What does this fold into?
Amino acid sequence: SYLGGWGSIKLMNNQTDTSTFKFCNFSYGKAILPGVSYDDPDILDNKGGAIFANNYDNIIILNSKFENNYANYSGAGINIQDCQSVFIENSVFINNHVLRHGAGANIVNYDTLVVKNCLFQSNIAISYSNTVLGEFAIGAGAGLFLSANLSSQKALVKGNKFANNFTAGGS
It folds into this structure.
């Protein structure tokens, strides 16, 4: 259900700190701002069902599980944007649901990114819209959605497993 649950952990505007999550379970986190469009990327409260990080120095996630989280716009499990360094290893992203990008994890604008030996399974990134031309589906990156704006950004995505994720765009 999209009702109930808890609001996400927010890590905001700190360029001199490292936050580490080890052996954590994140379930039923929600990023829903009622009464506004889910499709507005400027509404931060619709991002990051379990963890939302914005303009942060270093994020480390090890041996953790993200399950049954929900976000209106992006990153039902985690939404990380404009961070220096992101390291995710041996973690599991299962059955997370988002209406736009990155149901398991949505990571954009980073300097260095490592995602190793993780499982992305049964995540859903999709919504449907009706127009005068008919119904169409949108959504991308059901398991993992990455976006980088600068050619100097470095990413290593290695040894991960993707199974049964569903989206209108790539998984």
